[in-house]
Design a protein that fits this description.
Layout lengths: L2 H13 L11 H9 L4 E5 L5 H8 L3 E6 L2 H14 L4 E4 L12 E7 L7 H14 E12 L2 E3 L2 E3 L3 H8 L3 E11 L2 E10 L11
Parallel strand pairs: 1-2, 1-4, 2-3, 4-5
Antiparallel strand pairs: 5-9, 6-7, 8-9
Length: 200
């Protein structure tokens, strides 16, 4: 995502023109939380904090990151109103050198798909660095489609090419969002001894 697109997103947050900000935690995430033991969670592209707050309410220690100043300010207010503690950071998800792991769970709903190819590589290495071996990573992303002058989205084979070195895919569910193909991905961070391999 380039600087102009970031400014457009920021402006849309200030205008309240954010159709992606549903204030609803997806059932796929709730299903995971119902079965998982709380630990340390990382919410990538957290927006106004809906999912970070849902995690915190269930006992997770949450760090949530977004580049939008307005979104993070709103997220702080929402967390205070909900009576939960979340560490919100206004930062680039591909440049989290100051953030230390390990995290037990990482969540990305619609963040990776907006990154440029070189940013995606840095993102994948960042998530691999921060997530503990055996930790869970969930991703929601559209398939590629034209949005204005750009193609936005990422295909399953591209996701696997990015993540397969460090992660094993455990589940994939295809679907649609407003008529456009999309998918949920479940990955697990490989143990160090298997980090260089790929799953069958």
């Amino acid at each position: 995502m380039g600087i102009l697109e970031r400014l457009r997103f920021e402006w849309r947050y200030w205008r309240g023109d954010t159709p992606w900000d549903t204030n609803v935690t997806p059932p796929e995430v709730l299903e995971f939380l119902a079965a998982a033991r709380p630990g340390r969670a990382l919410d990538l592209g957290c927006g106004t904090g809906t999912n970070a707050i849902a995690l915190a309410r269930r006992g997770w220690r949450v760090t949530a990151v977004d580049f939008s100043v307005k979104a993070v300010r709103t997220a702080h207010r929402k967390a205070r109103a909900a009576g939960v503690e979340v560490e919100f950071r206004c930062a680039d998800v591909t440049r989290l050198e100051g953030l230390g792991g390990p995290f037990d769970y990482a969540l990305d709903i619609g963040c990776l798909l907006g990154l440029r190819p070189e940013q995606r590589l840095r993102y994948a290495e960042t998530v691999a660095r921060l997530l503990r071996p055996g930790g869970d990573y969930m991703l929601y992303a559209w398939f590629p489609r034209r949005v204005g002058r750009r193609i936005r989205g990422i295909a399953p084979e591209e996701v696997e090419a990015l993540l397969g070195r460090h992660f094993e895919r455990t589940r994939l569910e295809l679907g649609k969002e407003r008529g456009h193909p999309s998918a949920w991905y479940w990955y697990r961070r490989r143990k160090p001894s298997a980090a260089g391999g790929r799953h069958p």
